[in-house]
Amino acid sequence: MLRIINILIFILVFQFIGQTQVNYGKKYHFAVGLFVGPHSKLITYAIITESGDKIIGTQILREQSFMYFIMGFWPSKANPERLNLLELNEVDSCFLLKNSADKISGYFIKPFYDLWKIKYKIHPIDYDAKGGWSQEYYKPSPIQAKYIYKHYGCPNVKTSYIYGEGLYKLLRDIQKPDWQIMYQTLSDSI
Fold first, then answer.
1. How far apart, in Å, are the Cα atoms of 183 and each of 9, 133, 151?
2. How many Å apart are CA 97 and CA 86, to the nearest integer?
3. Which helix (H) or strand (E) is 17 found in, with range?
């Protein structure tokens, strides 16, 4: 009986030590999905929770909440210091708008409005919109998909989020006319 008690104590101590050494640290990132979400828009905005190298949670946000969080107007788990993360990551053409009383009244986010062009050749809802940059109508070509994965860390534009440094890099790149032409004309020879 004493032997069984000693074994149980050993197991409990071993589990306790093992649990105290495991790092349960979580990281929060702003994320954009180029797929229709619960709000029925072309882009899904979210904050993802990462533990180690795995996504363990997703909080879907309305566009307005996402923009106020990422630009530091409201605090969030992904931006508790309320910094303008777009400005800090050198993403141009994104800023908060103020009214005559110097109160925040909205935002301007041109690169976010162009994100659909990565996935679509023509806008799937607004047929009067200028064309997109995708080589195929409703998804990037295989070479474009490989490029997005290699440079921005998104394994599948149709189902995966772009987040972290990959998101900021993509937002900077899509504003460059040279990048737009390069992306549209990607081929296997590149």
1. 61, 7, 12
2. 15
3. helix 2-21
Answer whether residue 12 is part of any domain: no
Q: List the alpha helices (DSSP H) in 43-141.
A: 63-70, 85-88, 110-113, 116-119
Strand residues in the chain grouped as ranges (E):
27-33, 44-51, 54-61, 94-98, 104-109, 161-163
| 9 in a structural domain | no
Domain ranges, residue 162:
27-184
Residue 44 in domain: yes
Is the overall model pTM greater than 0.90, yes or no?
Answer: no
Q: pLDDT tens-digit profile of 30-46?
A: 999 999 877 768 899 99
Residues 115-164: tens digit of each pLDDT: 999 999 999 888 888 999 999 999 999 999 999 999 999 999 999 999 99
The number of residues in the chain equals: 190
Q: Are 95 and 88 in contact (CB under 8 A)?
A: no
When divided into structural domains, the chain yields a total of 1
Q: Is residue 166 part of a domain?
A: yes
